[in-house]
Structure formats: structure tokens, C-alpha cells
């Protein structure tokens, strides 16, 4: 039972927009540390959102056009078994990101606005497994992040940062019962503080560049990941992820608005539940669903999205030499949202939006 293969795609294939929950790209899973023996994996993914909205009649009633750009994801993991109790893993991922580009020439009030956030992280995890199948693990995460934005409808504001680095940590505990493929793992990821060197300009500065420093904390989070065999060659798996988005704020000193450039009213909790099935010694497949509840209120104009639902279908092929090739496709229904220019009245409505994600993972156990 412990060798059941599940194919959930190469990545956590979720749409990514600049709003609460939508900055979350990789999900920060440390599942590779639980692989048997020595293990290496490489993953690729692409997500293509389609997000449009319409301004209220008082702002012309114009359509925004598709304002969410597609993006690629890569990930890598290496894990080695040091002895019967100790395992060491190194994980590379791109935990947070955003890509926003409102088309020009639409007469929509935010036309021409752009925003981009990029991050990469390298995580080292050390795990100790006791004789009663309880594991304790922890490690350090080194994170790089940069961002830029252009918001013409707010005094022609522009900001661009350098690449900032920060150090955080993770700790966790897990319980395993290999004979029924049971594993439950709880992981806490700390916040990581960044001090960006920024250059800002707006009509308030006469278009002149002004240098400064902007402090941003990438959010802390908690992951609960689980799996269990429920019948011969059949596995149920899932996760619950909480992210502290209400503490995430990007507020450059020169931004000419009463509210921050980016901030969120609520944290997010994202649920995933799926089932995997091994068809024979080589082929397996899976299907999973995901859900993130709507928080209500107004969404950011740089991230007009509130909640989501998704379905992912995956398949995997494993060779006799333990080389595994897996792939998946996700359809994400993006939650409807309203935006505002003054935090009190509606400026636009975004509805009936979606995204498609595809991914591939190549892994080898030895």
C-alpha cells in the first residue's frame, strides 16, 4: 500500500492574482521530505487566467479587458536519507507572485495599470523519525523578492524595488503508518521580513524619482497535509492551508492614496481533497477539488478576485527504474469581486472569470 502513486500534477495549480490568497503560488509543500530513500524531482507549470470586469455606470461602464497575465512556475527538490532516523531535504520554489496588466485603450478607469511581484525561495529541511512513526522536522528558508507597479489612475504613480532577501524558518510534526499509506503532517512557515530599496514617482513629485525604503513581510502560514489508503490501490489525500494575508501590507511612503498600495482585510483558508488510484504497476491517476471561501468587502483593483473553486485531474507513469513522469491540468473558477476607489462605493464588478493550469513533474527515487 505504501507504494501507491498519486498524480496531482506538477504544482499546486492555482490561479495567481494580486489579492488575498491569489499571491500564493507554490503552497510551500514539504512533501518531498517524506519520500523513501534518496529522491530528486523537477517540476514545471503554467497558469493562464482570464479575468475581466466592468466599471459601474458612473465611471463609464467600460470593460477592463483581460487584466491578469499568465505565468510559469518551476520547482525542484532533493532529499537524501542520512540513516534510519534522519533525512535531509532541499527545496526550491516560487512561493508568491503576481502579474497584472490592464490593457490600454479601453477607457476603463484603470487602463494601463501594471503590477508585478516575483519571489524565489530555497528551503533546507531536516527530519527526525522516531521508532513510533512520529517525525519532527524543521529548517530555514532563504527568500528573494522584488516588485514594481504603475498606477496611472492614482496620480500617475510608479514604484520599482530592488531584489530583497530575507531569512525565515519552518517547523513541523508528522505521523505515518506506512502499511496503509497514512501520513498526516502539520507545518508552520514563519513570516519573512524584507526591506526594499524603492524608487517612486507621481504627479505629487512632479514626475521626479524619489528613493526610499519599504518594509514588507511575506506572510506566515500553516499547512496541514494528509493522505491515507482507503482500499486496495486507492488513496485519499488533501490539505488545509491558512495564510496570514491580513498582516501583508505593501505601503510605499510616496503612494498618493489614503489606503496602502496592497493590503487585505482577511486571511485565507484553502481546502483540497482528492482521490488517487493505481491502475497497474506503471499507471496511476487522481482527481482533486479545491475551495477557498469568499471574504466579502472590496477587492484590490490590482487583484479583483475573491475566493475560488478548482478541479484538477492528474496522471502518472512510473518505470521499472523508479523514474516517474506525472502531469495534471486544473480548471479554476475565480470568485466574483467588487472593487472601489474610495473604500466605500463600488467602482467595478468582476464576475464569471476563470483560469487554466497545466503542470508536469519528473522525479526519480534511488
From TrEMBL:
<feature type="signal peptide">
    <location>
        <begin position="1"/>
        <end position="20"/>
    </location>
</feature>
<dbReference type="InterPro" id="IPR005017">
    <property type="entry name" value="OMPP1/FadL/TodX"/>
</dbReference>
<keyword id="KW-0812">Transmembrane</keyword>
<keyword id="KW-0472">Membrane</keyword>
<dbReference type="Pfam" id="PF03349">
    <property type="entry name" value="Toluene_X"/>
</dbReference>
<keyword id="KW-0998">Cell outer membrane</keyword>
<dbReference type="GO" id="GO:0015483">
    <property type="term" value="F:long-chain fatty acid transporting porin activity"/>
</dbReference>
<dbReference type="GO" id="GO:0009279">
    <property type="term" value="C:cell outer membrane"/>
</dbReference>
<protein>
    <submittedName>
        <fullName>Membrane protein</fullName>
    </submittedName>
</protein>
<comment type="similarity">
    <text>Belongs to the OmpP1/FadL family.</text>
</comment>
<keyword id="KW-1134">Transmembrane beta strand</keyword>
<keyword id="KW-0732">Signal</keyword>
